[in-house]
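Re: the multi-chain job from yesterday

Posting the exact lines I submitted so nobody has to dig through the queue logs.
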Amino acid sequence: MTIEAWLAAAVADAERRGLPELKPLLESVAASTRALRSADWCDRADGSRDEARSEE
Amino acid sequence: MSRPLELLPLTDLASALRVRRITSEALTQACLARIDADSTRLNTFILVLRDEALERAREADRDLAAGRDRGALHGIPISLKDLLDLRGTPTTAASRVREGHVAQTDAPVVVRLREAGAVFVGKTNLHEFAFGTTSEDSAFGPVRNPLAPDRSAGGSSGGSAAGIAAGMAVASIGTDTGGSIRIPAAVCGTVGLKPAFDDLPIDGIVPLNRSCDHVGPLARTVEDAWLVYRAMRGDVVAAGERLVPIPPIRGLRVGVLRPYFTDLLDDEVRARFDEGLAALGAAGAVVRDRAIPHAADIAPIYLHTGLPEAAAYHGDTLDRMPERYSPNVRIRLELGRYMLAEDYVRAQDGRRVLRQEVDAALAECEVLALPTVAIPAPLIGASAVRVGSRQESIRNIMLRLTQLFNLTGHPAISLPCGATRAGLPCGLQLVSAARDTERLLRVAAAVERVLR
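And the result, structure tokens for all chains:
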């Protein structure tokens, strides 16, 4: 699931559950998730990160 | 003894008890008097065990008089964070969610302390379910810092640290999932030890994030913390036993973590830290910079580990009794329910990277040094603070320097390192090799001698 899709679904669900105050916190988590997924140690199935690491 | 009885280090009190200069009953009475005088104002204790404590203190006096000596903690008043099970008492976790709970048995570390003869004076206030760094969100009111009551005592073990600083207990047992022993120790001017992961059992303790949870002591000195830690491990430690050998400062290799860990510091915290390092250097320590290459990933890794683990424990009660949580704690717990399993797994991969990097930083030095908390005790009610040119959330800035070692499991300790001009304490954090808490304590004792 992309972060954008996750965030849209999470915000919609939070609003449905009567928890609109979650929205800014979910946005903050989304930014943190972007950082997590873009970390250079985060492996990818196509091996692109292995190549990037070997070039360092 | 120029200081009041209840403010003396455990080592002094243990000696005084054995030469009958004091009694455990008098010492316990002194702590209870401090609780009577200030606990309501500071919200330090959730439960005071007056009758039980005095009974156990008299029993300790009788035992010691008869030569039945259980060791250094025998007859010493100690408090327990109200996250630990103490049989026959509620474990509230500072939450209305736990209303009606009564512990049927002692947590294993409590069993060991009981066997060591400790006198439990009561259970201390905390951030609800240990899920915060200020001890403000509590069903029993915010814990106030004894040194500045308009400010936080830190958290989540705020009542434990505040109680020691105020003379309500000689030592306390806290828990630490992201810094919850070290943070309040730093801002209240006490010592706080997070032992190595899995060093002490966490059974019988309300969890926050099971893969990051630790239990450990808060105390007045490093040697006091060592005595309590040894008792929590189940060791029998004689009253005269000392923390020896303490390594010489001359030649001690100290790795200072930079840059991330020194990028964002209050000016006075930075000044006290630099002065501490200068004092160590002047005493002969070899101070060198060390780096954690992926330090910028610490916060995302911690967030994606901690929130889902907390949500797993709280999911059922979030559905059944959401109104019983304080609003801030409830909403953060709800956040964890939205996180994806794949991101949790990525975070665990990141932890392995960070563990290797901390090990590498320690490869050529005995200990790593960094400030414990980037700011002094924040004002109660504040949600953000200015640090340099940046506006930072109180929660994020208070966790910034401690959470790494919950992710990696390395033992870490906070000891006093001066104070701001307003008298707010600052802490120095030391970290040593994985699984070697005892070694960390010896080095910390050497550093403490230089800083005091």
